[in-house]
Design brief:
With 151 residues, the chain is of the alpha+beta class. Helix content is 48%, strand content 15%. The protein has five helices and three strands. The radius of gyration is 15 Å and the shape is globular.
Length: 151
């Protein structure tokens, strides 16, 4: 699948809106890798012991260590660059899910981008209460960009 300029621009809009909503400073850096199923499958097996492709993986650079307080990346001096982490998205899985959920590839890509960004910010969805909060946050950020489930 070919990555278009429009897709790149949309990714930047989603990342910038999430950064704005969550109070990240302009010097905060996030990398996004748009991959295929084979590549994300290798990462999923290596880092999560799951032998299957997935839609999105996030690798936070600022994870807290056991027993340590959560780092506050919004309270960093303006001249310090913050490396938030990496988001890896499978475009093949994105396309399949867009079709399955009956919305556009762009909407699914936007959703997975904000989903990955929220993981970098410490959100999770292992239990129902966390899942509900994360879904609410995802839809909130997307709604600020006019991106709805119907797209």
């Amino acid at each position: 699948m070919r990555v278009t300029t429009a897709m790149e621009q949309m990714l930047m809009q989603v990342l910038n809106k999430a950064a704005e909503v969550y109070g990240l400073k302009p010097q905060t850096e996030v990398s996004v890798v748009l991959a295929d199923d084979e590549y994300i499958h290798q990462l999923n097996r290596q880092y999560r012991n799951k032998d299957a492709p997935t839609d999105v993986l996030s690798f936070a650079m600022n994870d807290q260590c056991a027993g340590e307080p959560e780092p506050d990346i919004t309270d960093t001096p303006d001249d310090i660059e913050i490396l938030l982490g990496d988001i890896v998205i499978s475009l093949e899985t994105t396309a399949r899910q867009a079709e399955e959920f009956n919305h556009s590839l762009e909407r699914e890509l936007a959703y997975l981008t904000v989903h990955g960004m929220l993981h970098l910010l410490g959100y999770d969805h292992e239990v129902e209460a966390e899942r509900t909060e994360m879904r609410r946050e995802e839809e909130y950020v997307l709604s600020l960009l006019g991106i709805t489930r119907e797209q």
